[in-house]
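Exercise: predict the structure of this protein bound to 9MR.
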Amino acid sequence: MRAALVSTLVTATTGAAVLLATSASAGTTLGASAAESGRYFGTAVAANKLSDSTYVGILNREFNMVTAENEMKIDATEPQQGQFSYANADRIVNHARGQGMRVRGHTLAWHSQQPGWMQNMSGTALRNAMLNHVTQVATYYRGKIYAWDVVNEAFADGSTGARRDSNLQRTGDDWIEAAFRAARAADPGAKLCYNDYNTDDWTHAKTQAVYRMVQDFKQRGVPIDCVGLQSHFNSQSPVPSNYQTTLQNFANLGVDVQITELDIEGSGTAQAQNYERVVKACLAVTRCTGITVWGIRDTDSWRSSGTPLLFDGSGNKKAAYTSTLNALNSGGSTVPTSTTTSTTEPTGPTTTTTIPGPGGCTASVSLNSWNGGFVATVKVTAGSSAINGWTVTTNLPSGASVTNAWNADRSGNSGAVQWRNVSYNGRLAAGTSTEFGFQGTGSASGLTPTCAAG
Ligand code: 9MR
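Solution:
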């Protein structure tokens, strides 16, 4: 059930109009309640449980984001070098999309769950094999993934703040940024995340090390859009008192923050209160855009003996479910969403403008049409922060196709066409613009471009 929305048009300090939505009534499921503040609520899904009706009933009712628990890992998708296997991952992606849920991709490059052939590789051969894997898998799922965990768990635990030793790390420190660049090239529309555990406590050396890497990537223009905090908690690793500080500090680097694998061992009121703290911390941080729990029922968990999830083994809602739902319904910051306004002048060009949140970009199109063809000029404008690159998506109506383009790299020529900046027009200072254009056949009326920075 979607609550009615009360919309307020406000003017941000930059002068850009931002549409804020406020909830007028509480949601009754995790996904619907999270959506009221512009967030998602997701779960890890195992393909072999999609035939379990209790499991699927809860999945379809409560969640609006899905992560494949194991099916998109390297050993699953490339079991033999160069032979890709997507059947189980596709079952999850197709189920999610069929239910209108989005998908987080997990994971393209990781020291663990490598197929045997990759475990035995090193040096340039491994680097190339890793980049080929990233490219192939991200290309196969292009347009279907909301966010990719491009690199998972690349930092060591403990007090050193060093990279984790692995065959991938031994190919050179730049393996992480190389993976991100390959992922961006393969799927410019997906948000690209770095994902790790034990990065929840702001004072930990590992948290600081990941923070410095993300800061460095942003400064050098390495494409990164989000940081995933896995957030596996138990008595040895409790929810830290500075958890919200950690989320906020990452967000302040200009990336989204996502809680990607949440589970909290325990039971009863104590567990319920811990879930409430985590949810409220996310809601307090504007760029904390969603929460994923690592499984549905306690019996589905990788740590089932710790009963760390929101539903018991029979699928009943636990106290932790209720506290999570109540926390989602308690208000909090609203994630700035891109909103679209459109004006049509019957005799002149059509102009459509997308208004971004801070740090994003807008795209507007001016269309000159004739019977059977058109020229579109697209203006890309940075939001309230400078951007290092942009990707614009234009959904062409059926029958329309692109014949010629300038000032942008293109993928596709019909349907959802994606446009990526070229070398000379990716960097835009706050509020400044650049233009690219294309010519096509058919009709492009009603074109509403969207823009993603990064
Ligand atoms: O939940 C996953 C479990 O089924 C697998 O056996 C395990 C193998 O590595 O991976 C689990 O998921 C992990 C995730 O991919 C990365 N972060 C830690 C998760 C829990 O181990």
